[in-house]
Design goal:
Layout lengths: L1 E2 L2 E3 L2 E3 L6 E6 L4 E7 L3 H19 L3 H17 L1 H12 L3 H22 L7 E4 L3 E9 L2 E5 L5 H14 L3 E5 L6 H13 L6 E3 L4 H10 L5 E5 L2 H11 L5 E5 L4 E5 L5 H13 L9 E7 L3 H13 L19 H16 L3 E4 L3 E2 L10 E2 L2 E4 L6 H4 L6 E7 L2 H8 L4 E2 L1 E5 L3 H10 L4 E4 L14 E2 L2 E2 L4 H7 L1 E9 L2
Parallel strand pairs: 1-5, 8-9, 8-11, 9-10, 11-12, 13-14, 13-21, 14-19, 18-19, 21-22
Antiparallel strand pairs: 2-3, 4-5, 6-7, 7-25, 12-24, 15-18, 16-17, 20-23
Helix pairs in contact: 2-4, 2-6, 3-4, 4-5, 9-10
The protein binds nicotinamide-adenine-dinucleotide.
Length: 481
């Protein structure tokens, strides 16, 4: 069985203690490869390699950094099918989704920042005839990048690309639940001629590798995407060391549907925004708030469409819903469905594990689940479930919809359906979220700021926001009189 390797100082190497973790295929529930169980000694090697490479890489002309990154982007595109299959096997997502979304986006991330860095300029501030200020922006040094399992290569590259484009060297850790495409990326980086030490990938557990990266005195900057609890722990460790932090955390996003929406479009998109990637996207709308006058119609048509979604083998093109990522995660999601029932909810469809036949009989499948009859403040409607589970709730007024929408500790994304232009702008202005989609979902322009408010995070990714994060500004003031 394949043993994944760490990528340190340009080479694929075993973890120093030669220990490995089982890697499960969620579709079958079987171990299919081994992940390095690295520790702080491996992180130490990676930091040494990144520190040694920093002087040369940060002084490499932007054009050359860009050229190498474009080559990596091309290689991701060239290997699209192989990477998509690997992502699907590792994560349980339908291969069609990995083919259409995850892997093309990973290629775009490299392409976007390979070209973005060529257009990135710093400011100048003139004090009339007294002085001129100009701002230099320098890479910070060794950046720590830690990513989750739900969009493995997509989110991993979303951090690495701006970090290395702006001249930093990186010590990165993919999720130990989905390490495979990060490993394949390290092979592509070698093929593309990325100089050794510029990117180092250390595999393993969060409490060993992740915490060693967070606590390392030679890593002054951490870009993290994952759960809110982990983000709080990282902030606690990093704060006394004054590290720069970007934290992209959990969500409990509202999907607010007004009676005047384009009903057909809304239903089609709401199926996706509820259940794409088995509901395991931080941007999914898991609390669906529907204006009372169309509540019954919505409930009937939505549930009918959900019932038609095929749950099955992720490799089968007909499967709309694959496996959730792991057994513990499946158990967590199922426990939330039980909680919803205890809290007075009625399960309209789904609500249970699905046992498939043959080689998939031990896989982690959950029927897409719709629940009604819950209050806005119950735990089911306040806590992140991160699975194929949504609640639906009627509302009577705009004020009530807004109150419920803004009632959680989270503030990542909100979705709004209305054809009323003034209402759309009015509500967008009042929603507590970093990202608002009106009459659409997951439509992304990589130049726009990405991130959340409240417990959904600190800072923004995307566009020049990420290049600002991965650089330190230095103001130079010259007196001219
Ligand atoms: P997680 O917090 O458990 O793990 C994320 C990463 O952090 C993993 O690589 C893990 O090994 C590492 N880690 C764990 N403990 C650590 C520690 N003490 N120190 C340093 N690193 C540590 O999250 P997950 O279960 O992998 O991902 C799901 C979560 O991610 C959900 O809450 C979801 O909303 C969130 N998410 C947010 C966004 C966003 O952009 N805001 C995007 C995707 C996922």
């Amino acid at each position: 069985m394949l043993k994944i390797k760490n990528y340190i100082n340009g080479e694929l190497i075993e973890p120093s203690k030669k220990q490995y973790i089982d890697n499960y295929n969620p579709a079958t529930g079987k171990v299919y490869s081994f992940i390095p169980d690295s520790d702080e000694s491996d992180v130490e090697l990676a930091v040494a390699a990144a520190s040694a490479a920093f002087h040369s890489w940060s002084n490499t002309p932007k054009d050359e950094r860009s050229r190498i990154m474009l080559k990596i982007s091309e290689l991701i595109e060239k290997n699209l099918e192989r990477l998509a299959v690997a992502e699907s096997v590792d994560n349980g997502k339908p291969v069609s989704l990995a083919r259409m979304v995850d892997i093309p986006r990973a290629a775009s991330n490299f392409h976007f920042y390979a070209t973005g860095i060529l257009h990135y300029a710093a400011e100048s501030h003139s004090m009339e005839d007294t002085a001129i200020n100009y701002t230099l922006r320098s890479p910070v040094g060794v950046a720590g990048c830690i990513s989750p399992w739900n969009l493995p290569l997509y989110l991993f590259t979303w951090k690495i690309a701006p970090a290395i484009a702006s001249g930093n060297c990186v010590v990165a850790k993919p999720s130990e639940v989905t390490p495979m495409t990060a490993y394949l990326l390290s092979e592509l980086c070698i093929e593309a001629g990325l100089p050794k030490g510029v990117l180092n990938i250390v595999h393993g557990y969060g409490h060993k590798v992740g915490s060693a990266i967070t606590a390392h005195p030679k890593i002054p900057l951490i870009s993290f995407t994952g759960g809110t609890k982990t983000g709080a722990e990282i902030a606690r460790v990093a704060a006394p060391m004054f590290k720069k932090l970007s934290l992209e955390l959990g969500g409990k996003n509202p999907n607010i549907i007004f009676a005047d929406c384009d009903f057909e479009k809304m239903i089609k998109t709401t199926i996706n925004s509820s259940f794409a990637n088995q509901g395991q996207i931080c941007l999914c709308g898991s609390r669906i708030l529907v204006e009372r006058s169309i509540y019954d119609k919505f409930k009937k048509e939505f549930v009918a469409s959900v019932n038609k979604m095929k749950v099955g083998d992720p490799a089968d093109a007909a499967s709309r819903v694959g496996a959730v990522v792991s057994k513990p995660h499946m158990e967590k999601v199922l426990s939330y469905i039980e909680l919803a029932k205890e809290e007075g909810g009625t399960v309209l469809c789904g609500g249970h594990q699905i046992k498939l036949e043959g080689e998939f009989s031990e896989g982690y499948y959950i029927a897409p689940t719709v629940i009604e009859g819950l209050t806005a403040d119950c735990r089911t409607n306040q806590e992140e479930i991160f699975g194929p589970v949504v609640t639906i709730m009627p509302f009577d007024t705009e004020e009530e919809a807004l109150k419920h929408a803004n009632s959680t500790q989270y503030g990542l994304a909100s979705i709004l359906w209305t054809e009323n232009l003034t209402r759309a702008h009015r509500i967008a202005n009042q929603l507590h979220a970093g990202i608002i989609w009106i009459n659409c979902w997951l439509l992304r322009d990589l130049r726009t700021p990405f991130g959340g408010v409240k417990s959904s995070g600190v800072g923004r990714e995307g566009g020049f926001e990420a290049l600002n994060f991965f650089t330190e500004p230095k103001n130079v003031c010259i007196k001219i009189k």
